[in-house]
Amino acid sequence: MSVIENGKVAFVTYTGTFPDSGDVFDTNVGGQPLPFLVGYRNMIEGFEQEMMGAAAGESRSFTLTPDRAYGHRDDSAFQDIPRDQFPADMEIEPGMVMAAYSDQGPVQFAIDSIEGDTVRVDFNHQMAGKTLHFEVEVNSVRDASPEELSHGHVHGPGGVEHQQKADDCGDSCGCC
Hints:
Structural class: mainly beta
Radius of gyration: 19 Å
Number of helices: 2
Number of domains: 2
Strand content: 35-45%
Low-confidence stretches: 163-176
Mean pLDDT: 90
Shape: elongated
CATH class of the largest domain: Alpha Beta
């Protein structure tokens, strides 16, 4: 029987809640199982650690503090940006979540405040500083293919679908 360990592909059904309120922040119950390549940072570290050794049909329940989830909020992740760096016709207001493109790819941020011609943005992950609870069921576990291991993510149903042959994959295909 295959268990969740580094280099395996796990398919899980989960519900994530905030333990203080019980509010659901994410779930795939009633949908397709979530596939992830174990040990390749496809999931938050604490989630993977808690799922290690689990086999198909097994359920786990665990709570992750910020240090094992998305980290603590970092005051240095705030930045003041001139309003003219945003499209003139774009309405922006505090709380909005937006994305920008950097040389490392897309970066998500939230509008913290607007004062005059200055927009203060928050680059902290939206879940930073939060304690998270998960109820997880393992649907299946399989060996990863050599291509999945070299690319660092799951291919095929439920994972990345390539437009090119895996042998031709590189930064140009957008998967890596």
